[in-house]
Amino acid sequence: MLKPIAIAAAVAALTFPAAALAHHGWSSYDAEKLIEVTAPLSNVTWGNPHGGAKVRYQGKSWDVVLAPVARMEARGLTRTMITSGKPVTLEGYARKDGVTEMRVERVTVDGKTVELR
To answer: Could you tell me how far CA 68 lies from the centroid of its own chain?
Structure first.
């Protein structure tokens, strides 16, 4: 009979690879081409492993990848500053593979610029 600790270890071993694959690495973004978007955000999420939102850019809906909540808050960006519908300026990098997703390096809102990385 398997002991509870062995079962927990097996579950953890099977779960970790899936979680690691689900999260994208930063090498998939084109750090050579900074893009800047000033537009209102929609679908803002405030959670971990990082926050997110959507923004219209180049006539398309883009996914916005923000930083982890603790980092954003430590650097002065709060959930109330980036509510859905509020215009912000985002500076970041698009994915290399053409997926409409942006990794955001800095956010400017209400005249305040916050570095996320």
So the answer is: 7
Amino acid letter, residue 46: W
Share of the chain above pLDDT 70, in %: 79
Where helices occur in the chain by DSSP H, the ranges are 4-22, 69-74
Mean pLDDT of the chain: 85
Cβ atoms of 39 and 45 within 8 Å: the answer is no
Q: Return left, alpha or beta for 79; rule: phi > 0 is left, psi -120 to 50 is alpha, else beta.
A: alpha
Query: Rounded to whole angstroms, how far apart are CA atoms 63 and 52?
Result: 7
Average pLDDT across each block of 10 residues of the chain; the chain has 117 residues. List them in order: 50 41 70 96 95 96 97 96 94 96 97 95
For the beta carbon of residue 36, count every other beta carbon within 10 angstroms: 11
Beta-carbon contacts of residue 113 (< 8 Å; ≥ 6 apart): 106, 107
